[in-house]
Amino acid sequence: MRYAVRSMADARNIRQHLEALLDAAVRAAVVAHDLPDVPVPGSAIERPKDAANGDFASSLPLRLARAAMKPPIAIAEVIAGHIAADPAIDPPTVAPPGFINLRLSNAFLQSQVEQVIALGPGYADLTLGKGKKAQVEFVSANPTGPLHVGNGRGAAIGDALASGLAAAGYETEREYYVNDAGTQTDTFGDTLYARYQQLFGRDVEIPKDGYPGSYMAVLAREIKDEAGDAFLRPAGEFGPPELNTRGIEVMVEHIRDTLEHFGVRYDRWFSERSLYDPGGAYSEAMDLLAANGQLVEREGARWFTSSELGEDKDNVVVRSDGRPTYYGSDIAYHFDKFVRREFDLVIDVWGADHHGHVSRLKTATQAVGADREALQVLLYQLVTLKRGGEIVRLSKRSGEIITLDELIDEVGADAARFFFLLRSPGAQMEFDLDLAKKQSNENPVFYVQYAHARLAGILRHGAEQGLTPEGGDVSLLTQPHELALIREMMRLTEVIQLVATTYEPQHLPHYAMSLATAFHALNDAFKQQNDSSLKTITDDAEMSRARLRLVQAAKISLARVLGLMGMSAPERMERAEAAIEA
Fold first, then answer.
1. Entry pTM
2. Tens-digit pLDDT profile for residues 449-501
3. Domain ranges of the chain
4. What is the C-alpha to C-alpha distance for residues 81 and 67, in angstroms, rounded to an integer?
5. Which SS3 state, helix, strand or coil, does residue 79 take?
6. Cβ-based neighbour number of residue 172 at 10 Å
7. Does the structural domain 444-579 have CATH classification 3.40.50.720?
8. What's the rounded Cα separation, in Å, for the pair 571 and 451?
9. Under a CB-based contact definition with an 8 Å cutoff, are residues 430 and 390 in contact?
10. CATH 3.30.70.1120 fits 133-179+266-380, yes or no
11. Alpha carbon distance 80, 25 (integer Å)
12. Going by DSSP bridges, is the β-strand pair 99-102/93-95 parallel, antiparallel, or unpaired?
């Protein structure tokens, strides 16, 4: 007796479809008394290490052997014999010591070309996060200076992660937390006023703990050009608060411009000051903690009794002078995220130097009524720039820290994003400036974008000869490299799911390189065999249209992953034009 699985499989659910086939086969084997009725562990489908064994495999027989008291290979043969015939797969095979190998059928693979084209830019979208709200907060650098290269890594990671979550079905928002309150902004204001006074001939020095960068002098000049002496006070007096406010506003404008230059756009710029507005999140969060008996007065300050919730110590949330600590502000901010705005998932992308703050913030999240596991903190390591094999430490322009704008100007936003994403966030990275600018296949950015340009060029070349993908018969796609490209296109759904569940956006650039490799291998294989019938565009119009349809689907897939990384998908590149098949 075979248990048929009626659901129609495609790239988005192929694993679940195969797992259902396997589960049904086990149930059928039990009914037929070919297997004992024993508890069955999860029948997870995996990709085998060696692709020669198939597209997917299951080790379920190995895990059933003890309970079923049968050799794994015998169990594998029994289950395989009960797997219902299905158009998505060829007949299953068995391999020692007890694996069931499953290979996707040519007909199923060919059908996925149509699936990609039908879905277009929405290809590989999932429903994993359907009905859930997610927020990704990233960069959030203090508005007391320009963004630097390290901020750029956080920007690339956060933006790609937000795109991955959106593709997985989450209602996703990007947010920048503007630290426009606290001691750092006071110091910024004092430094700015000193620079501002200097422009009027006053002999004043910047504060000892101030911001010495030359950008502060540039900012003061910008404000003087805009407002003249409107912010000038008699010598010896403190600067007006309005100057501080305007300085922060201008810095935020510059940060916004830099991020726009980098291709990052936020849904919301959240002001820290708004937390302290009447009826704001800060007072509400503190009242909640107090009502729950989780605030105590000690040494003139207010402490959150986090030790009662598993932390190694209590933490100050309100200083003795009545001002909130950084931790107190963060509690209020995350109260606003989870309780007021009701996000189901919040991801904070922070520099690795904040690692000590993660546990206690999760504890505070729990204390204000949210699920601590709904807060995920992604920590990323520092970036080292190299040029000519040497470490680059200072800006050529100013002799100071290298800004994100300078990096974008030198290598471009696409290259910067790709390289920032290439390593896992927790790994330190060396950014090779020379490699990022190379117009060759050594540069992974060029390699991937060149593939997209070649795909676009082939479609144009076909159109020039009166051939389009429309009406192409995908059943003609039987060459090994053609099917290999389709298999790689199908993997995008798995990659998006991986990004959305592990919060590891580095899978995107690695997949992009694999997809580009599969296309280059197909195109190069046709050329190397020196057989005109194996070119994309041949004298056989039907075969040409079929292959153009494959090219169209591959172009959609590659554009999709480039878009998820926030990169452009070029239609033309000089070298690609020269390489298009004649």
1. 0.93
2. 999 999 999 999 999 999 999 999 999 999 999 999 999 999 999 999 999 99
3. 14-104, 133-179+266-380, 183-261, 444-579
4. 20
5. helix
6. 24
7. no
8. 10
9. no
10. no
11. 7
12. antiparallel
